[in-house]
Amino acid sequence: MTVTVVTGSASGIGAAIRDQLVQAGHRVIGIDRQNAEITADLSTADGRQAAVEAALRACEGRLDGLVCCAGLGPTASSSSLIVSVNYFGMTELVNGLTPALARGTAPAILLIGSVASVHPGMDKLPMVTAMLNDDEAGARSQADAMGATQAAYAGSKYAVTVFARRQAVVLGPRGIRINVLAPGAVDTPLLQASLADARYGEAVRNFVAPVGRNAAPAEIAGMACFLQSAQASFVHGTVVFVDGGMDAMTRSDRF
Ligand code: NAI
């Protein structure tokens, strides 16, 4: 049976991915702050290390899939927390579980990015440079100095996408695929928190995808399951937008 680790498996998109992978016959090892096979806090280095060790024990050192979904939105309590969970909570899981994936069958990694990652100027942010240099302390202090959680969110999603594309070159020869799925607005507790926020609510409400509605988590999970499946065996190092046309609407001449 295919064994897949899913972070953020207790809620929203991660829970929907978990359900569809189980329906497709995977054994899922969920990681989350609560209601998961492995309870861990991915915001700290110790929590991430404990999560990796518990996952390696649960899969007995051999893994076929990893889906990193755990993340915080712009309403999180600080920019540094967003950086730690959204970037290091994904990259350290990839790095820690790669040896087990290398022993798996047709192994595949999927990172959940965001349509927010294409906001202009992300590549110029000092916090992004620090993330890509694997400097968590530097990235956290740069993010807090900027003092804009929305920028920390978009920057973390841009950085994790660059990380994945760089890893594609390293992991491809080892037989491990890696891709990014970039959702638009999806009806989950994370989006509800943004809608209810005095700073962001109106902008989120006004930014409507061309299809005229938000996604249900299951619509994101369908693409995630495809990307993790044998049918996607030549899909590697790419970013798939599942956003109802948001990316096409904002930058139709760039792809
Ligand atoms: P959600 O809030 O429903 O689920 C996020 C999950 O991550 C929760 O179960 C939460 O406990 C877990 N998590 C958060 N911090 C954690 C920590 N320190 N340690 C362990 N687990 C932690 O949110 P949603 O919407 O399902 O988000 C999933 C992913 O999708 C996130 O990476 C988010 O950035 C991304 N996304 C969501 C969009 C949306 O409109 N909902 C749009 C684009 C991307």
Instruction: State the name of the first-level CATH class.
Output: Alpha Beta
Indicate the structural class.
alpha/beta
Global mean pLDDT: 97
**Low-pLDDT regions:** none
Ligands bound here? 1,4-dihydronicotinamide adenine dinucleotide
Name of the CATH architecture: 3-Layer(aba) Sandwich
Give the overall silhouette: globular
Annotated CATH homologous superfamily? NAD(P)-binding Rossmann-like Domain
Number of beta-strand segments: 7
Measured as a percent range, the helix fraction is: 40-55%
**H/I helix tally:** 10
> What's the alpha carbon Rg, rounded to whole Å?
17 Å
What's the SSE pattern? EHEEHEHEHHHEHHHEH
Could you describe the largest sheet, including whether it forms a barrel?
Answer: 7 strands, parallel
Biggest sheet strand line-up: 3-2-1-4-5-6-7
Number of domains: 1
Kindly report the CATH topology. Answer: Rossmann fold
How many angstroms does the end-to-end distance come to?
37 Å
Walk me through this protein's architecture.
Keywords: Oxidoreductase. With 255 residues, this protein is an alpha/beta fold. The mean pLDDT is 97. The protein has helices at 12-23, 45-58, 79-102, 126-132, 136-146, 149-171, 189-195, 201-206, 217-227, 246-250; strands at 3-7, 27-32, 38-39, 65-68, 108-112, 177-183, 239-242. Strands 3-2-1-4-5-6-7 form a seven-stranded parallel β-sheet, with helices on both faces. It contains ten helices and seven strands. The chain has one domain (3-250): Rossmann fold (3-Layer(aba) Sandwich). The structure holds 1,4-dihydronicotinamide adenine dinucleotide.
